[in-house]
Amino acid sequence: MNLENTMKNLESRGYTVKYFSSGKEASDYINSCIDGTSVGIGGCMTAEQLGLCDSLSAHNTVYWHWKSSEENIRELENSAPFFITSANAISEDGQLLNIDGMGNRLAGMTYGKKQTYVIAGVNKICDDFDSALSRARNVAAVKNAARFKKNTPCQIDGKCHDCRSPERICGSLLVMWQPPMGMKVEVVLIGEELGY
């Protein structure tokens, strides 16, 4: 994994890229960028670990289905002008990969936002597309299925089986080669191991 190459390649694809050595610095930065507005957070362990919901809620309206049982919370997440999520994997050549069960996080990353922040620890960076896809399927998806106590084959041996389980939480894959037209996407890399 070469951090400098990854950052350069992300920038060449049209992403704004910031690097912070600690999660605290990254959290402070995001709080300075999003103020007095509304923000949606897609399923994101990194945001949870950084305490972004609490810190942003002090000066914004935050919509996050992990923190609210409001009936239409996912729609509110996706209607906010700002959106925060992570990536399951980032290839060194600058591709962002995400797997999702319902698709709300993927939708939030790709349509209608003023600004999207993709926050990720350096543990998400992979050498190439194949290793990034493997990480998304066999690390992130497996850990998320375990966290939600899903009855899926990956819980037996820790690897993806491309199963047909009704409890499967990895039904969709998004590969972002560049920011969607008309959207600003900033990748905030953090020099710590964060998220799945």
Please, could you describe this protein's structure?
The chain is an alpha/beta fold and 196 residues long. Helices cover 36% and strands 22% of the residues. The strands form 2 sheets. A 6-stranded parallel sheet has the order 1-10-7-4-2-3, with helices on both faces.
Features:
single chain; 196 residues; alpha/beta; four-stranded mixed beta sheet; 22% strand; globular
Condensed summary:
With 196 residues, the chain is an alpha/beta fold.
Largest sheet: 6 strands, parallel
Shape: globular
Low-confidence regions: none
Going across the biggest sheet, name each strand in turn.
Answer: 1-10-7-4-2-3
Number-wise, the strands total: 10
Helical/strand content category? alpha/beta
Helix and strand pattern: HEHEHHEHEEEHEEHHEE
Q: Radius of gyration in whole Å, from Cα?
A: 16 Å
